[in-house]
Every structure is written in structure tokens, then in C-alpha cells.
Amino acid sequence: MLFTRARPRQPRRRAPTGARRRAVGAAAGCALAALAAPGPAALAQEGGTSAARLDAFAERYVERTGLPGAAVAVTKGDEAVLTAGYGRASDGAPLTADSPMRIASLSKSFTALAVMQLVEAGEVELDRPVRRYLPEFRIADPRGARITVRHLLDQSSGMSDQTLPDASRPRRPDSLKEAVARLRAAGLSADPGSEWNYHNPNYHVAARLVEEVSGRPFGAYMSRKVLAPAGMDDTVALETAGAPSPGLEDGFVRAYGADIAVPEPDHFSAGSGGMVSTAEDMARWLVLQQRGGLSAAGERVVSAESVAEMHTPSSRDGRYALGWMRREPEEGDRARLPQIWHGGALSTYSSYQFLVPETGYGVAVLLNTGIALTEEDAWGLAEGLLALAEGRTPPEGGSSLWKVDAVFGALTVATAALGVRGLLRSGAWAQRRRRRPLWRAAARLLVYLVPAALLAAFQPAVDFLLGGRDGTWLQRFYAIPAELSFLAFAAFTCLAIAAARVTALVRSRRW
């Protein structure tokens, strides 16, 4: 198997990224041809395309969408067709194929593999209750005794963000043991196995199970038993989403046409979303999946039967498998084939991975920007790379974020101007109403409470629209900074006007 190997890490400096990326693409194409592997020419004959064209498309996509940076891996069977980086990190250095990136919920597929290793060793059975292996797992609902290991991995345990709002709890756990212990206060929103609910603590419990059964800390187990055999030497499993890691820079929040580097809000994510990886390592991960658990170096990490189990949906929603999901093409869409996939989103990083079993293609995209309301950049870049590889016309990609931010920026400026006007005219407003019934004046002021009411209702409304998914105010703000800034500013301005007019009205009636 051939990997497009990144250059040794050099001292960080600013460099013209376009020339570097073109060089990476050209070098990849030349190396593939020189080794007579089934590279660009063969891919073109199979409906694929060259590494250079994939590289050019990814570079153009990043530029058109205004993304600060992305790293991608495209594989075919046991071959890495392209691994490359585009744009920059928050310290100004160019991103490369070996730049560390947070991979968010892609971490779940790694945790599932660790559990499957224990299943193969005869130490765990998927359809046995979790308590058989992890006696400390207790929840308030007695139905919790029926939760199986499979229920954790396919997110059908019955636990959910509605019964345990994990993200917004004031204090995060300090260890997997503590994360499991705090579930004692949790209830269930459904019978185990009867309903699918995406809930990160399912994977906290799964990671703790790995610790208990193996006798090793989760991170150490992952390093020794999963990552090292897979050849993923630059990948680490961290306990929290914002934990530091060597070479890892802050990601970005996008607002008002600018990319703003900010630290990732820290929350507990061991087993569910705490891993850091690179495009090079993600290529190895995709190849391992396509080779039925065999690493690029030929080492058996997990059996082909276990890989098939992880890729096969078992939850009631018919889509979620064990750390992976399955997507069927829409009816009448003959251009697409079934995909095995998973996405991940933090506030400052996002990711996407998928496999196409029928063609052997795999794609992973890592972005140093988080989720945004109007954008699906990780999915769009991954789908575009696949379309080009399969000989279809890929979408060019574009961004409407700047338009949305421009509208809300203009509304914020207009609100400021009207707010100043309203404050300055408070005295005149009160004079006109000094002899009128107070209830009429109060009724006129009610409209100024609307923005504050909307702001107060924002968090529960978003939770409802996201199917009950829990989140903090900071996470919501990072996703839609322009919109929330406008709403908060409008609420503050309207309350200030209302207070000024009430004060002026009281004074006018004293005279």
C-alpha cells in the first residue's frame, strides 16, 4: 500500500500555500505512477480521477467556501490516493496531511472497535447487560438493568439528552468512572432497544467498560491495542474536547466574514468525541475498514466479521450501526451507492468520514472550523471528492454564511441607530402620555419585551428543533454568532428604551 507521505515537520512559518499544495498533488501523482500501483491512470479508467485533480478540487473548494483550513484523505481499497492539507492553522502555519485536528464524534467508531476487540477475545458479549461487565453502571430507572453493550454502541439504550442534559451540566466529570457515576440520577426516555437517541454518555459508558474489562486506562488501551496496530502514530485519545495535544492549534469560529481563533469549549468527551488525528492517520483508518480490520502494514487489528458487525445497522432507526451509520441512496438516484459514514462537530472543529463498500472508496475530511447554521462544509467537501473520484461532476461549493452575517450585521447596526433615537426621545414620549391612562402606556411598552422573551426562549427552542440535543450557550453562540449577537443586542436595547421611558413617564407625572 502507498501513502502520500507528508514532509517532516518544519519550523512553523508563513508560506504561499497554493504552490505547496500543487507540489503535494504533483508529487502524489508521480509517486503513484512510478510504483506502478493502481493509481491515477487506473482510477480514471474505473471512473475515478487523478490525485492531482482531487487535490485541485479540494483547494478550490476551500477557497470558494472561505474555510480557514481543511485536511483530507481519499482512499481506494488498500491505497491512499490523496492525503493533503489546505489553508492555515490558527498560528498562521499551513495545514498539512500530518497536522493534528480534533475529529469530534468520529471518535465513536474507534471506541466501538475497542469494544469489538474485547468481544472477539471472549471477554464481552454485545447482547449481554452492561452491568455484567460494569457493575458500577446504575441509573435511576430500573429498566437500566436491561441495557446491553449493543444498546450503548447503536445509541438505543433509552438514555438521552432529555433525561440527562450532558453538555449543559454545570460541572463536567474528571474521569470515565465519575462520568458513569453521575448517571445514577438519570432516567430513560424509552425502553432499552426500542428507540434511537444520539447521546454521548452512551460512549462514555462504553469507554469505561473498556477500562474495566481490559484493566487499562481508556487512552492507554486505545494507544496500545487500536492506534499502534493500525499504524496511527499521530492519533491520541483525550478525555475532554478542549484538552491540549502536541502540535494542535485552536480552531476557528466564523463570524462577519472573519475567521476568529478561539479555544474549544471544554467538556468531557472520552470515548465519544475526544480524539485528535491527522489526514495521514485517517487514511490508514479508512484502509483498515475497507480491508476488513487488516492494517496497512498487514497487522490484524480486528476481524472482518467484527468490521461487518460495526457497519451493519442494528438500532430501531434502521441507520445507526456500531459507531457508524448507513446511508442508502434516495429512490431513483442511480448515481449514488450505499455509504457507511459518521460525522462529527465541535464548536471549533468538524469532521466527516465515509466508506463506499461497493467501490472501495473512502473519504475523510477534517476542518478547523466548527458547526455553522448555514454550512455543511465537511459533508460538501467529502461528497465532492467522492463524486470526482467516481467520475461524476462534483459541486463546486460555496458559502452563504457571509450573506447571512451581512444581513444580521446590518440589522444590528440599524437596531443601534434606532435604539439611540428611542433613548433620546424618551422624554418627549413620556410628555405625550403624562395625562393618559397608565395601562395604555404600559401596553405600548410591551413590544419592547419581545426580543428579551425570544432570547430567553432561544435555548429551549434550539434544543427542541435539534430533537432534544443538549448544548451550552457558548456552543450555540459559536455556531451562530451573528444571529445571537443581534438578538442579544436587540434585547438589551429594547429593555434600555423601555426602562428609560418608564423612568421619564414617572418623572413627568410628578410635576
UniProtKB/TrEMBL annotation:
Keywords: Hydrolase, Membrane, Signal, Transmembrane, Transmembrane helix. The chain crosses the membrane at residues 406-424, 445-466, 486-506. Residues 1-21 are annotated as: Disordered. Residues 54-371 form the Beta-lactamase-related domain. GO terms for molecular function: hydrolase activity. It is an enzyme of class 3 (hydrolase). It comes from the Bacteria. Residues 1-36 form the signal peptide. InterPro entries: Beta-lactam-related, Beta-lactam/transpept-like, Diverse_Enzym_Activities, TAT_signal. Its EC number is 3.-.-.-. This is Serine hydrolase domain-containing protein. It comes from Streptomonospora arabica.
